[in-house]
Amino acid sequence: MIHTSLVEKAQQGDEQSFYELIEPLQNQLYRIAYVYVQNEDDAVDIFQQSVIRAYEALPKLKEPQYFTTWMTRIVINCSKTYIEKTKHTQLTEPQQFDSYAAVEQSSNVEEGIDLWQALSQLEEKYKTALLLRFYQDYTVKEISLILELPEGTVKTNIRRGLQRLRQLLKGAYIDEWVQSVEGNH
Questions:
Q1: Relative orientation angle of helices 67-86 and 140-147, to the nearest 10 degrees
Q2: Which of 132, 103, 100 is nearest to 115 (CA)?
Q3: Angle 37-144-152 (CA atoms, 0-180°, nearest 5)?
Q4: Which of 28, 33, 27 is nearest to 46 (CA)?
Q5: Tens digit of each residue's pLDDT (9 = 90 or more) over 28-46
Q6: CA-closest candidate to residue 120, choices 86, 164, 159
Q7: Choosing a second label site near 57 at 20 to 30 A (CA), which of 17, 75, 112, 124?
Q8: Nearest-CA neighbor of 6 among 58, 75, 60, 79?
Q9: What is the model's pTM?
């Protein structure tokens, strides 16, 4: 839980407070960037760029209690901008999936690769909603805040994203995976 007093100190220029805010979020924010660009070095660059942008924009943050949501949005936006600029399409190596929690639900690497490839083919709005919901465990309400969309739109994007995944995978693995994640959330 982010302490608003820490955010307020950071907004006044206290670098140590800013570090204390970012430090517990590092892994989560890095993984979000990694899921988008699928490359360790690029994800680190995006994470660093996001931290710099956040530090520079922190005085403008109006609601300190939403620091984590705000920071997540910055990482997503930096990731999307990076992809647009580079048209980056490099796929990750299959053995790296487990270390980044990208295929925790899969029973073997082959299924995980199929799921990952299908996920990467989705429209950006569906992919983002599914990644935040099922890989980062955000609630629909939190996703709504991060993406600045109505909750109904987020629910629709999750549902349509899951439907599209089913089509892409032709039911091979997805039914079992969808049931497991829908049952857990």
A1: 60
A2: 103
A3: 120
A4: 33
A5: 899 888 888 888 999 999 9
A6: 164
A7: 124
A8: 58
A9: 0.68
